[in-house]
């Protein structure tokens, strides 16, 4: 064994001594003014290195493999740019890039589709991108608000559905995997997302990968992946401040007016970052307060976030992130009835509140071993605490302490100029301590994965990969899940990229779905330890077309997709005459559809548009009927009008067709009065943005959400957000 270790060490040392590297030195400037751009993101496709531009727009990337590399540059408010460079051993290549200002931006870089840096045009699956500019302009304060504007993504309460993958189960068992800077962030007990736990003001971009993602990410990536990428620290000292204040307008119906004065809402965020040589620091915090448009539905939320990066050398970097969030809110589930839609049921204990806390700690180490090999080691802890205010010995008391530990080792090897291999192993441990899961529960998932990408010439890339997950829950026998995926991307020319993919995915039943035994809001939930994992196959074929009209680039993206899902876990009444529910493997579903997106400027940079439509025909194959809790049509459109260089008007319109089927037994048993009341969803948002001409960058945003005060339900017995108006102020000090 000792001889083997020595031999391996010698091989690594020899490889490093013979490694061929160069250096890239460059400057990023504004094409219109010639001024340097501060904080532009510079990345190398397929490689771990990167940089941010300094005050003078300069950047340096060292230890770049001596091969042909593609440089990808993006910055908020600018059109992304790419440059192909060829380096030889010991070379220092100088490059100057000019970025064109662009009010409709699209991030050029994604890391979620193949677990490595790629441009959007390189991936074989559909990826939607939301950048920091879109979040800021819309004055959004929570992740669920952001996702509502993404084509193909529907948010139902706290449930996120990508292309119809999820219906409604009160947030339990997400079929979309949530990541924060590539660290998993689904709770260990419910497998749900916590929208309030994210540093929304420090998000650089959000990547939404649509379709089966288990080949690289394992459980919960049944419908897709949502990766929240936070900002890197600024190269020079920077302070960001954001404050928002507003009111909910009073409803038109007297029986809905639970107070005489308009309820208030507000938020404040602060973020500071800097770089001290090879040390990069970012710290942020914020508060959200909301009186709510519904009675006894107020909430108070706090969060803190920190990121530290340190470069040991040009070949090695470590990163540490830490996040803590707390949520204090009122606790009721469904309205009293439609006549009193803003009031809780008369039997609601109005002293009951929810105290929810979340802690995420993540560690990442990246090392470049040679010009063809680099590794990434990640470890994380995600802990959630949840309790309500009812006495511990009462029937309605709910509490849980859940922790997820993950460890991931990944290697990327450039075997030849055409072949790249990404492989790794991952271990996940879920621990839950809760009265409603009958004490201490445990789940472990051990995984290995590999993916190969081969380039046939300069225009075609084929991808093949698979992941094996061994799931062990409590005393159940281990269950092995194999998730393969195949994809191909072909560039017809510089403006047309074709893609196609097919893959398998799964979601292991959560500990709560198996072992929850509680009573809440008239429902009794029973245990079902024998739940099987959900299984799904999805395929798609798509085209990305980026022509230029009038000197401006447009983007057209169209995809046809289909998903087949088996053993879907849904809440079901044990018998039709009681309110007892169990989670069971009940459904088989087919979800075909078409998605179309367009983005560009109609006339110069005066009028622009972003629009996306998803049309689906979700089918329950067991009942031979439309799948419950799904919308067949979704349409999102944003229109931008630049009145001057500093004054702009935006309008967002969201449409969701009426849900055709719900679980009628909830209404028949009288659990939710008027629970079958539902309509199509039409929401119009208007905003006015003014970049105030002062020395310190200052922006004012007047935002009118649900401007028409349209009334609708997102899910059974819950009135959707009504009209509110807010003013947001943003400063950035450098």
Characterise the protein shown here.
The protein has 734 residues and is mainly β. The chain has a single domain (127-733), classed as TonB-dependent receptor, beta-barrel domain (Maltoporin, Chain A, Beta Barrel). Helices cover 5% and strands 55% of the residues. The chain has 6 helices and 46 strands. The chain has a 22-stranded antiparallel beta barrel. The protein has a 5-stranded mixed sheet with strand order 10-15-16-13-14. Strands 3-2-5-6 form a 4-stranded antiparallel sheet, with no helix packed on it. Strand 11 and strand 12 form a beta hairpin. The protein is globular and about 75 Å long. The protein starts with a helix and ends with a strand. The model is unreliable at 1-18 (pLDDT under 50).
Individual helix count:
6
Stated plainly, the CATH topology is called Maltoporin, Chain A
CATH class call: Mainly Beta
How far is it from the N-terminal to the C-terminal residue, by CA? Answer: 55 Å
Instruction: Name the overall outline.
Output: globular
Number of strands: 46
Rounded mean pLDDT score: 89
Helix/strand-derived class? mainly beta
CATH superfamily: TonB-dependent receptor, beta-barrel domain
* Helical fraction: under 10%
The domain count comes to: 1
Q: Tell me the radius of gyration.
A: 25 Å
Main pleated-sheet profile = 22 strands, antiparallel, barrel
Low-confidence stretches: 1-18
| Percentage of residues in strands | over 45%
Corresponding CATH architecture: Beta Barrel
């Amino acid at each position: 064994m000792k001889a083997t270790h020595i031999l391996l060490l010698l091989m690594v040392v020899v490889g490093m001594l013979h490694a061929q590297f160069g250096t890239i030195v460059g400057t990023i400037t504004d094409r219109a003014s010639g001024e340097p751009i501060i904080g532009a993101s510079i990345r190398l496709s397929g490689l771990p290195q990167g940089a941010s531009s300094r005050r003078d727009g300069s950047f340096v990337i060292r230890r770049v493999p001596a091969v042909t590399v593609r440089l990808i540059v993006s910055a908020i408010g600018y059109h992304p740019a790419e440059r192909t460079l060829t380096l030889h051993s010991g070379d220092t290549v100088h490059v100057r890039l000019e970025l064109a200002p662009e009010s409709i931006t699209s991030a050029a870089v994604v890391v979620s589709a193949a677990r490595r840096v790629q441009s959007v045009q390189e991936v074989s699956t559909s990826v939607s991108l939301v950048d920091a500019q879109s979040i800021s302009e819309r004055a959004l304060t929570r992740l669920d608000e952001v996702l509502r504007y993404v084509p193909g993504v529907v948010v139902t309460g706290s449930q996120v559905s990508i292309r119809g993958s999820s219906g409604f189960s009160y947030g339990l068992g997400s079929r979309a995997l949530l990541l924060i800077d590539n660290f998993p962030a689904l709770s260990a007990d419910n497998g749900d997302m916590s929208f309030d736990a994210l540093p929304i003001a420090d998000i650089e971009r959000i990547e939404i990968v649509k379709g089966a993602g288990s080949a690289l990410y394992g459980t919960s990536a049944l419908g897709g992946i949502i990766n929240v990428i936070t900002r890197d620290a600024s190269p020079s000292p920077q302070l960001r401040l954001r404050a928002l204040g507003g009111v909910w307008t009073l409803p038109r119906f007297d029986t809905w007016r639970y107070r005489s004065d308009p309820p208030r809402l507000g938020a404040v965020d602060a973020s500071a970052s800097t770089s001290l040589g090879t040390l990069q620091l970012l710290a942020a915090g914020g508060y959200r307060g909301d009186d709510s448009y519904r009675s006894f539905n107020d909430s108070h939320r706090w969060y803190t976030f920190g990121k530290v990066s340190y470069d040991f050398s040009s070949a090695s970097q470590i990163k540490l992130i830490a996040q803590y969030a707390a949520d204090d809110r009122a606790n009721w589930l469904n309205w009293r009835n439609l006549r009193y839609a803003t009031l809780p049921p008369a039997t609601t204990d109005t002293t009951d509140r929810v105290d929810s806390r979340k802690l995420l700690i993540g560690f990442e180490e990246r090392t470049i071993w040679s010009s063809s090999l680099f590794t990434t080691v990640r470890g994380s802890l995600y802990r959630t605490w949840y309790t309500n205010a009812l006495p511990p010995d009462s029937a309605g008391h709910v509490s849980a302490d859940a922790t997820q530990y993950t460890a991931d080792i990944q290697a990327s090897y450039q075997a030849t100029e055409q072949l790249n291999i990404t492989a790794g192993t991952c271990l996940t441990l879920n621990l839950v301590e809760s009265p409603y899961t009958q004490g201490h529960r445990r789940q472990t998932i051990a995984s290995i994965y590999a993916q190969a990408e081969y380039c046939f010439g300069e225009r075609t890339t084929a991808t093949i990969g698979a992941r094996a997950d061994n799931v062990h829950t409590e005393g159940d026998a281990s269950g092995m899940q194999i998730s393969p995926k195949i994809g191909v991307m072909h560039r017809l020319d510089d403006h047309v990229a074709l893609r196609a993919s097919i893959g398998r995915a799964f979601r292991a039943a959560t500990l709560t779905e198996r072992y929850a035994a509680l009573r809440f809001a008239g429902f009794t939930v029973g245990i079902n330890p024998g739940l099987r994992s959900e299984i799904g196959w999805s395929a798609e074929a798509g085209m990305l077309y980026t022509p230029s009209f009038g000197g401006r680039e447009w983007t057209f993206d169209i995809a046809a997709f289909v998903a087949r899902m088996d053993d879907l876990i849904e809440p079901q009444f044990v018998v039709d005459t009681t309110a007892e529910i169990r989670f069971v493997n009940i459904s088989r579903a087919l979800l075909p559809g078409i998605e179309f997106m367009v983005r560009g400027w109609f006339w110069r940079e005066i009028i622009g548009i972003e629009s996306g439509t998803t049309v689906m025909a979700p089918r329950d194959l067991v009942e031979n009927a439309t799948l419950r809790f799904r919308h067949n049509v979704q349409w999102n459109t944003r229109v931008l009008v630049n009145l001057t260089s500093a004054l702009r008007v935006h309008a967002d319109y969201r449409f969701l067709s009426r849900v055709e089927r719900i679980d009628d037994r909830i209404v028949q048993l009288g659990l939710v009065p008027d629970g079958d009341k539902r309509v199509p969803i039409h929401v119009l948002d208007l905003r006015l943005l003014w970049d105030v001409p002062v020395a310190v960058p200052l922006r004012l945003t007047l935002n009118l959400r649900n401007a028409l005060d349209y009334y609708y339900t997102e899910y059974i017995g819950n009135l959707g957000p009504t009209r509110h108006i807010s003013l947001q102020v943003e400063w950035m000090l450098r």
